[in-house]
Specification:
20 helices, alpha+beta, four-stranded antiparallel sheet, single chain
């Protein structure tokens, strides 16, 4: 047998290299087609099975791959190819002949060169004995593709240019044609940008099928999308989410299977189930935009577009005012969906695996949320969202069980870009850290926050539960509510008794930047006057600060004081 792995690389650069939303959407669609439509069309022709070419939506794709009539087991005498995984930008399959493996890789990479110029696609295969454990071949093929990708020239080498050539206005690559914009200006664009733009509307149509059974719709074309996002929204949210612990699960997947056939079947089911859970969580989370949508033909056009939606990955651009609420809903629903035992077509495979691998019901996810102005460079905003996601992922280092294994726990980090002069997260957070002396540090931020409810973290150690409670998202939201009326300019006379006035918030903000002592002194000046509010804002006794829980294993002698007041003040317009 031959195990074949085909994978795209440099996806983030390919999708988010430009600031044109239309091109970002189209690039995502092209990446999706590599592991789905184009692969299935090639295999369908080789095995002469037209049913495999029916890829129009993820439901049909899932049903075809699980149907043994359309995707028979490789042990069948007449079967030459079996598809294990076929998802956005990735495919894993088994063939009986080396020539077929080579032919699939050749056809697919050639098609990508023609129809998705600029994308990097690599295919490798290894020979293995079906009577021996397949996991050894899986590890070998992944090592082989890493080597192949590292030796691959950058896609930019395909587009060498001379000084006399015009440059593409959006990509900087050599222009191949002229496009007329709405103002009748002639814009030179590259073949890469042209292909991405041509695929954008197809992506919107495919995404629209996800919600066709509801009263929701996405913008029908990119012109409507840009109009809605640039003219009607004050803030844009860029949300980037990714599942936790999946790498370790896939690496040790042989622990959940009895033999090679069981391994292949379960891996296929798990991959398809993961895709289904992400989609289900997304479809439920978009309900938060219902009130903000535009009514048209008995449908509500939502101010959100999924750029990446597959596997455990999610990247969307949406109405910034609802971005945090959407992200919270998505993370919590993803946990619920992966814990289900009745997922359509795939049953309880994720819950079965997660119980063995993580000793938890279902999986968790983390997210980074960058909230920017509509004309802010999209690629820069995405980079910030990715940095915020990495920050949220650090939560797993502190939520563990007695075996020092990570407990399934979702978290999010966010940043609102009021000042575009610097969006490097490390520098942003560095400005919010004060060194009082050698042994005492002060942090004027508390992010990231733990979204998973504390009652779901019972498997965690006592310290981990205490730590998660310290960074609890719901506790943070309660503090935001105490400041929210500041931004709404309510004229209600009773509001002073319920919400801290803006002038007091501003005084506290200024005092905090002078250090813990100054911040607490200002807080205590108003403590009695607004006691019903300040007692809830306080992190500890009559203080906006609290000592950060530090694991004794870290052997850290420093005392770190943390406050969430500035975080809450930042979020008042967005929660």
């Amino acid at each position: 047998m031959f195990l074949v792995l085909i994978e795209t690389s440099g996806n983030q650069n390919f999708i988010f290299a430009t600031n044109k939303l239309k091109e970002n959407i189209g690039a995502s669609e092209l990446t999706y087609r590599v592991g789905t439509q184009w692969l299935l069309e090639i295999i369908g022709d080789i095995v002469k099975n037209p049913n495999l070419k029916l890829w129009q939506d993820s439901d049909l794709l899932r049903q075809n791959l699980l149907n043994s009539n359309h995707n028979p087991p490789i042990e069948d005498d007449k079967q030459s190819i079996e598809i294990i995984i076929a998802v956005s930008g990735k495919a894993l399959l088994i063939t009986k002949d080396k020539e077929i493996a080579q032919d699939i890789i050749t056809q697919l990479t050639t098609k990508c060169l023609k129809e998705a110029p600029g994308i990097n696609v690599t295919g490798v295969y290894v020979e293995f004995d079906w009577n021996k454990p397949i996991q050894d071949a899986v590890k070998q093929v992944y090592r082989k593709i890493e080597i192949a990708q590292s030796n691959l020239f950058s896609s930019e080498f395909r587009f060498l240019k001379l000084p006399i050539l015009s440059h593409c206005d959006t990509s900087g690559l050599p222009a191949s044609q002229i496009e007329i914009n709405p103002e009748n200006d002639k814009i030179p664009i590259s073949q890469v940008s042209f292909t991405k733009r041509n695929s954008a509307n197809d992506s919107l149509k495919r995404m629209d099928k996800l919600v066709q059974k509801s009263n929701f719709k996405f913008p029908e074309n990119t012109n409507d999308l840009e109009k809605n996002f640039e003219e009607k929204l004050n803030w844009l949210g860029i949300v980037h989410a990714d599942g936790n612990g999946l790498g370790q699960i896939f690496l040790n997947f042989h622990d959940f299977a009895e033999n090679n056939r069981d391994y292949v079947n379960k891996l296929r089911k798990f991959s398809l189930a993961l895709d289904l859970c992400t989609q289900n969580a997304f479809k439920k989370a978009i309900n938060v935009f219902a009130e903000k949508g535009e009514k048209k033909n008995n449908k509500t056009i939502l101010p959100i577009i999924p750029l990446v939606l597959g596997g455990d990955d999610l990247t969307v651009v949406c109405d910034g005012k609802k971005a945090l609420e959407f992200t919270e809903k998505f993370l919590l629903t993803f946990e619920e969906e992966t814990a289900r035992n009745d997922l359509e077509d795939v049953g309880n495979i994720i819950n079965e695996v997660s119980r063995k691998a993580l000793k938890s019901d279902g999986l968790s996810s983390c997210a980074g949320v960058a909230i920017v102005k509509p004309h802010f460079p999209f690629s820069v905003g995405y980079d910030l969202a990715e940095s915020l996601l990495k920050s949220a992922k650090t939560v797993k280092n502190n939520v563990q069980n007695n075996d020092n294994k990570t407990v399934s726990c979702s978290a999010l980090d966010f940043h609102i870009v009021y000042d575009s002069s610097g969006v490097d997260l490390e520098l942003i957070r560095g400005r919010l850290e004060l060194k009082e002396n050698e042994n005492i540090h002060t942090k004027l931020y508390k992010r990231p926050f733990v979204v998973t409810p504390s009652n779901k973290l019972k498997e965690a150690t006592e310290f981990s539960q205490k730590w998660a409670k310290f960074y609890d998202w719901n506790e943070f939201k309660n503090k935001v509510k105490l400041l929210t009326k500041n931004k709404r300019n309510s004229q209600n006379e009773n509001d002073e008794k319920k919400y801290l006035p803006p002038n007091q918030s501003n005084k506290l903000r200024s005092a905090l930047f002078r250090g813990k002592e100054s911040g607490d002194a200002q807080f205590q000046l108003i403590y009695k006057r607004y006691e019903n509010i300040t007692i809830k804002l306080a992190e500890s006794d009559k203080s906006l600060f609290q000592i950060t829980p530090i694991n004794s294993k870290e052997n850290n002698k420093k005392t770190v004081y943390t406050t969430s007041f500035l975080d809450a003040l930042d979020a008042t317009d967005f929660l």
